[in-house]
Amino acid sequence: MEAAMDLMRRMPPASAETALNALLSLLPDHSLDLLSQVDLPLQVCMDKENLKEYILCEYNRDADSYRSPWSNKYDPPLEDGTVPSEEMRNLEIEANEVFSDYRDQYYEGGISSVYVWEDEDNGGFIACFLIKKDGKGTRGYMQIGSWDAIHVIQMSMTLAVADGHLVNMGKMIEEMEGKLRNSLDQVYFGKTREMVCTLRPPPEVLNMRLPDS
């Protein structure tokens, strides 16, 4: 299992699903551990009723069906699928509309979904915000790549609700997104710049002389 997880950490995201399926065939006794510990790229489905795409995750899944945040219906259809209460559903509808605007302004496109449900243990609620952005061709620099973000707000905090829950949740998400971007810039891009700046040409290149003109 340790070797399998080590292998998955080294796989490019585009090959993660193929690699996971291969490992599930090789290690059937560890299927539950692999499925629970391996993160795959977010998948997208189309809401046929509203003609809008939505993101699939464990938070909108019931059995083998997924609930659309736009229609509140499961695909494939599920008669007794779990749905939020009327209060939570109204908050979910508003959150999806607001988060769509945030996504367009912050990510310049992509797909977003928000799922809200009751927290039976604490009497509050939990919200999951997801974004999937294909970075291919963004501003002409990136040839391949994507950004998958999952924010699950599940904490107890005392905050003013004068402006509504969405404002508070939005501030949390924006702060976390900023930290993630800064981390990427400092760790990955910073390391790349360091490597490029410290590279030196081999001695034979330094000793080469250009021919006289």
Strands, count: 8
Helical content stands at 40-55%
Taken as a percent bin, the fraction of beta residues is 15-25%
- Sequence of secondary-structure elements: HHHEEEEEHEEEHH
The strand line-up of the biggest sheet is: 3-4-5
Shape: globular
How widely separated are the two ends? Answer: 64 Å
Instruction: State Rg.
Output: 22 Å
Query: Can you count the helices?
Result: 6
Structural class given helices, strands, pairing? alpha+beta
- Low-pLDDT segments: none
Q: Major β-sheet, in short? A: 3 strands, antiparallel
**What average pLDDT do the residues reach?**
82
Subunit structure: Heterodimer of an alpha and a beta subunit.
InterPro entries: CapZ_alpha/beta, CapZ_alpha/beta_2, CAPZB, CAPZB_N, F-actin_capping_bsu_CS
Main location: cytoplasm
Protein name: F-actin-capping protein subunit beta
